[in-house]
Amino acid sequence: MRREKPAVAHIEADEFKQWMDAMADALLVCDDVEHILYLNRAAELLLGWPREELQGQSFSVLVPPRFQAWKEGSLLRHLLGKRLASAGRSTLVPLRHRTGAELALEAVVSHTGKEPPERVILTLRHLPEVPDATAEPLELGLAPYPWQHAHQGLAHAPTLAERLYQLIVENAPLGLFHFGNPPFLIACNDQFAGLLGTTRQQLLGLNLLTLRDMRVVDCIRVTLQGQHTRYEGNYVSTTTGKCTPLRAHFAPFRDEQGRVVGGVGIVEDITTQRRMEQERDTQLALASTLLRTAPVGMAFYDTRLRFVHINDVLASVTGQPPEAYIGHTLPEMLGPPGIQLEQFLRHVMETGQPLERLEVNSREMGLLGTWEYSTISMYPVRAPDGRILGLGSVVEDTTGAKRAEQERLRLLREAQEAVRVRDDFLTIASHELKTPLTPLSLRLATLERKLERGEPLDASSLQQARGHLVRLTTLINDLLDSSRIESGGLALHPQPTRLDVLIEHVIRVTESFREAGNRIAFHVPVRPIEVMGDPYRLEQVIANLLENALKYSPDGGTIHVSLEARGEVVLMTVSDPGIGIPSDQQKHLFERHFRARNVSTHSYGGLGLGLYICRDIVARHGGSIWVESEVGRGSTFYVALPTLQASRALTGPTPEPQMH
Ligand code: ADP
């Protein structure tokens, strides 16, 4: 439901006057030529003038004689101008009571605008707190302080001390002001007015409690309660809107009886200081971020070599937080190794010369911590005048780099060794391959000659020729097998195999090619011994061990071969009374191309591949091979393989026999 807006009631002039008379504050209205047009009941009481008498009179009748010519204008105009500058805040005004006494009044001046009819309106309030305001008119309000502009009625010519005081106040690089109680501004210097973005004339008489900045108002209140106080903040001028970072100190001002009769303020523009502080904070934040996040360790020491700063990276090396270091010396933090490091610092301190990239092995120095290797640089930190303020040090963890370098050297050595082994191998291999070729071609030439002459061919020559051919084939097979093993491709074709039979066969073949020398004794097992294996490869293992036993037993003697089943394992041994193997070499025996030290001193042919191939074959059968040996007394090679039953239990049904 829409409600009708009530019609604005026409206010009768009489009713309006009744309203004015009902007001608690005194009200005075003047026209543009400063004639009093109207005053309300409260004004009548305050000024002691009956309305009928004062209305129509010039405002100047209310102005005390000494303010009649106020700054070459009228007091009313001055107050009006000031009102515009102080944004309608109250000010202290001296007015004359009908009896002639001066009243200190708090006034708010306003006007209806410059367009006619212009009316100036004053709202007045008596200041009962001002002691003897009537007895000593205005002395407390617009008091003639030495630095205040001289005006009519100045009590006396300034003394020398007062002039000096004025000089100091006027030239101080700070804003200075004085206020009474209540806090009307009594006096201030130009610097203060400048800081607030206005003029001194506009400020004088202003009631400081009407300032917009409540923190300033609180400071004024506290000062009037007799305490010193401080203000720091961005003061925004109401009139200009200018924002100035200010710092102010307020102090109460007491009379001889100790009563607080006002206060003083000292105001400082801290714009530059703030900017410098901000710049410094930015610089510090930047520096501390750099310090903290730098991937290197950093520390600063004072001239007594105590930690002033240390970044997290360096502090963490010992597992202690950075705070634990501050104020302590290196020996205090690191123990004896710290003494040594401190000597370097002292050297830099004494000579003023930096020490660059000192390589430190923490373990050797006895330093605990996560960095094994590091480089330390130490340098003096100087003030602009060259004085040494302290020392800085930069510590870099070089553990990774050092290890990489060591690894690189190791790899280089290994590569060089591999090249050497390869070169040796090529020399040996070509020699080894040629060794059976020469007698073979000799034998074949003899046989050829005999055939030409029609002489009978002897079986032993043919056998020996075949022996050389077998040797050659074995060498070539070893080379091929070795490269197959390297590429993971040595295939097995397992089948149930009588190992005792295989050994007997290998011994027979070996003996058939062998010239007189050693004897081979096979301790035949009582029961047949079967394994799941590749007969071709197992024969290779047995032949190799047997050939080695013969080859490395140059002084003759018996080679003992044994075979037995122990539980789930079949154990074959080949023992010889030969040259033996140095104990420190035994663990390398099954490595590719390895040849024991003692074989190179005698000229035993070989490529160092046989045992390497044996180990691979045995391992692929699920077995193991090892040696027991003593230099000069002979060697025993052991081959352990799973029995047929054990292999079956592991792998299930027997695979079909395969052909090679
Ligand atoms: P090769 O005999 O061709 O050098 P092997 O791999 O068969 O290669 O043997 C490797 C090395 O092991 C031999 O060079 C030798 O030093 C040592 N060795 C092997 N068998 C015996 C053995 N029965 N007595 C002494 N040393 C042996």
From TrEMBL:
Domain PAC: 229-282
Lineage: Bacteria, Pseudomonadati, Myxococcota, Myxococcia, Myxococcales
Keyword Cell membrane: no
Enzyme class: transferase
Protein name in the entry: histidine kinase
Gene Ontology MF annotations: phosphorelay sensor kinase activity
InterPro entries: HATPase_C_sf, HATPase_dom, His_kinase_dom, HisK_dim/P_dom, HisK_dim/P_sf, PAS, PAS-assoc_C, PAS-like_dom_sf
UniProt cross-references to NCBIfam families, sorted A to Z: sensory_box (TIGR00229)
Gene Ontology biological-process annotations: regulation of DNA-templated transcription
Keyword Ribosomal protein applies: no
Domain Histidine kinase: 428-645
Transmembrane stretches, start-end: none
Catalytic activity field: ATP + protein L-histidine = ADP + protein N-phospho-L-histidine
Residues covered by the PAS domain: 12-64
Native organism: Stigmatella aurantiaca
Keywords (A to Z) from UniProt: Kinase, Phosphoprotein, Transferase, Two-component regulatory system
CDD domains recorded: HATPase, HisKA, PAS
EC number: 2.7.13.3
Family annotation (Pfam families): HATPase_c (PF02518), HisKA (PF00512), PAS (PF00989), PAS_4 (PF08448), PAS_9 (PF13426)
